[in-house]
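Batch queue: ligand-bound targets. Current item pairs a single chain with glutathione. No template structures supplied; prediction is de novo from sequence plus SMILES. Inputs echoed for audit trail.
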Amino acid sequence: MLQILGRVTSINVRKVLWALDELNLRYEREDWGMPIRDPKVPEFLRLNPNGQVPVLIEGEFVLWESNAILVYLAEREGVLLPQHLESRALALQWLGWQASELNPPWGYAVNALIRKTPGYDDPDRIAQSMQRWGAKMEILEGQLAKGAPYVVGDEFTIADIALGLSIHRWMSVPAEKPDYAAVQAYYERLMGREAGARWMGAETP
Ligand SMILES: N[C@@H](CCC(=O)N[C@@H](CS)C(=O)NCC(=O)O)C(=O)O
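Prediction returned. Tokens below.
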């Protein structure tokens, strides 16, 4: 039985849970991650030295990094990644872009406006974070405005899972935002999937 370590309030854990549901795979989940259960303890650090969730365990096999877990699950099941070489590369491109380009700018704004983390109250830095985040969202808008239902075409892939959760966060942040019509339509399409609606639920920004 697959085992997932991580709290459902984590966007990176929800990526994995969404993929597992799309694949109809059964799993057991153990709550780890602050404030529920501190992963910076020897027992957890032996599994993931970063002290972060999610972690996948299958027998002796241990895997961390949410996008690597998505790729593993997709390849294990032979779905959610295109067979066609170029389409597959494009799906991996958007998956990598989500983690390395789209996510980093939101840190300050999300801490200030969603998490209300003490110390994150500088209006200039909030504005700067929103501006940089918006610039990345504009790139996604440009791709989606080409008219395909999913980010690399007609096929739903693990890249859509990762992007969907990032867009959900964008939608949840209470701030003035540009109106991205293609992103909005894509988000609604992803919400139309049973597992998408489950893991992009309103209570989990
Ligand atoms: N690059 C990692 C990032 C993982 C990450 O940042 N996880 C956060 C939750 S979203 C975490 O473990 N935070 C510490 C905690 O929850 O205690 C991945 O994609 O798996």
